[in-house]
Write a structure and sequence with these properties.
The chain is of the alpha/beta class. It contains 17 helices and 14 strands. This is Methyltransferase.
């Protein structure tokens, strides 16, 4: 009996060891799979490649290269494939044109050192940027609005620096974003409700917004459910990774600053511009920064200023600034706003709201002793690396903005710039045909990659956006598209894209984009390599 009992114990022990070993192996493999970032989105790469081998989805779509040269004129097998090695781990969050060390070699006045400064060719990296240790696929929207995996952006400084303002909190292996901000510690929703009592946010009149000095972009994140899309920007500065957090959350954002160079957006693009304790000296340099906001603000659009110097009489002690300085700062802002023909709609608490008049040129002509200097440039959209000027961009004076439809109707309506013949070479018929083309193309894409519009891809980029047809065909509350207009494009149609209720930016693809690594889920390029051939 003793021998039998001993044998049973040995058998049970062997089975237990086998089970424990099996479970250990299983959880090790599961953990490796999760931490590697390979998962719902990344495991499809092979399947997409295989399904893409037969691309004859629609007979009128050509997936072949558009470069010159005859097929079969060279032997591909004889060519040596160049492989890029990984960069060193310290380059995990490398941003070539906003490098912190290089920035320190430029002047600090007017934020010049925080502007774009790209490396010379001999200092460009030719290696693959590595992901941080433990990187995982971001959470899907809307969970990503409130949670970001710690491993994806492992920076805790803001959790301490902005603790009482409810920007961000560290909880175990994730960051949580309660939705607060310096000017709205009780949450962005309540703050936006306050703005909506003055600004028609809910009816589609206000669709595109600009957030200057956005922090972690909670304002833009909470505008999304109200069908407003915000272009947020902030510099790469001591507030480490604020724009990176915004993009990891699934909120449109770029690295940028209001310094001396014009913003990379077209004139009359935004329905609303916003500054919440953004620390921008609006009244300085004859109001040049407010004039730049006026350039990109659509007639009838709104400018929101929260924080100093608004309500300085009550708050000067809390802000620890002399009362006289704050009073003079607000006086200058009010003076410049009047010069720009912005009408003050509200001042409540620490928030003031102005509205740009529909016909500001007519307004200025009636002002006595107006000191307004109008810009002489014939193209207000020629902005790439061009310096700001202390002058006011004249409106077209043809009422074209009055024909703008509310969103979502404006997405496929004929944009006023096209309807009024302001875009050379683009007729109404060409615009409508472009919309049809991209609906067909997107249908073909979805047959190849079935995860499009499932929620897996949140941050999408179109590297050569044209009239915005790809983004319009994709339109969904699950995603957004950064429409990039190459600076060498034959037709500058970024203004048209904004009139459709979409967002975008000018960029030269010979340089690095103003973002962090790993911030886009899907990148689309149409005609891009042909455009940059021989460049």
């Amino acid at each position: 009996m003793a021998n039998k009992s001993l044998g049973d114990n040995r058998t049970r022990t062997s089975v237990s060891i086998f089970i424990v070993a099996g479970l250990c192996c299983f959880f090790y493999l599961l953990g490796s799979w999760q931490r590697s970032g390979v998962g719902k989105g990344d495991s499809i790469a092979l399947a997409v490649t295989k399904s893409g081998e037969n691309c004859n989805i629609l007979p009128n779509i050509n997936f072949e290269t558009r470069h010159g040269g005859q097929a079969g004129s060279f032997d591909d097998s004889a060519r040596e494939v160049k492989k890029f090695k990984p960069c060193r781990p310290r380059y995990t969050d490398h941003t070539p044109c906003q490098d912190q060390k290089r920035a320190m070699h430029f002047p600090r006045e007017n934020m010049i050192y925080r502007e774009r400064h790209c490396p010379p060719p001999e200092k460009k990296l030719h290696c693959l940027i590595p992901a941080p240790k433990g990187y995982v696929t971001p959470f899907p929207w809307p969970k990503s609005r409130d949670y970001v995996p710690y491993a994806n952006a492992p920076y805790k400084s803001l959790t301490v620096e902005k603790a009482i303002q409810n920007w961000i909190q560290y909880e175990g292996n994730v960051f949580r974003f309660p939705g607060g901000g310096t000017q709205f510690p009780q949450g962005a929703d309540k703050y936006i409700d306050q703005l909506a009592s003055v600004i028609p946010i809910q009816n589609g009149t206000v669709r595109t917004a600009l957030d200057t000095g956005c922090g972690v972009a909670s304002w833009g994140a909470y505008l999304w459910k109200r069908n407003v899309i915000a272009m947020s920007f902030a510099p790469r500065d001591s507030h480490e990774a604020q724009v990176q957090f915004a993009l990891e959350r699934g909120v449109p954002a770029v690295i940028g600053v209001l310094g001396t160079v014009k913003m990379p957006y077209p004139s009359r693009a935004f329905d609303m511009a916003h500054c919440s304790r953004c620390l921008i000296p609006w009244g300085a340099s004859d109001g040049i920064l407010m004039m730049e906001v006026d350039r990109v603000l659509r007639p009838g659009g709104y400018w929101v200023l929260s924080g100093p110097p608004i309500n300085w009489k009550t708050n000067y002690k809390a802000w620890q600034r002399p009362m006289e300085d704050l009073q003079e700062e607000q006086r200058k802002i009010e003076e410049i706003a009047k010069l720009l023909c912005w009408e003050k709609k509200s001042e409540k608490g620490e928030t003031a709201i102005w509205q740009k008049r529909m016909d500001s040129d007519s307004c200025r002509s009636t002002q006595e002793d107006s000191e307004a200097t109008l810009c002489k440039s014939t193209d207000p959209d020629d902005v790439w690396y061009n310096k700001m000027e202390a002058c006011i961009t004249p409106s077209k004076g043809n009422g074209d903005d009055e024909g703008l439809k509310p969103f979502p109707e404006r997405l496929f309506a004929v944009p006023p710039r096209i309807a009024n013949g302001l875009v050379s070479g683009v007729s109404v018929e060409a615009y409508l045909e472009d919309n049809k083309k991209w609906k067909k193309h997107l249908s073909a894409y979805k047959k190849i990659n079935k995860l499009i519009d499932t929620g897996r891809y949140r941050n999408i980029m179109d590297m050569n956006s044209g009239l915005g047809g790809f983004a319009a065909a994709l339109q969904s509350p699950k995603l957004w598209v950064m429409n990039v207009m190459p600076t060498i494009a034959e037709k500058n149609t970024l203004g048209v894209i904004y009139e459709r209720g979409l967002i975008g930016i000018y960029h030269d693809w010979c340089e690095a984009f103003s973002t962090y690594p790993r911030t886009y889920d899907l990148i689309h390029a149409h005609g891009l390599f042909s455009l940059y051939k021989d460049k």
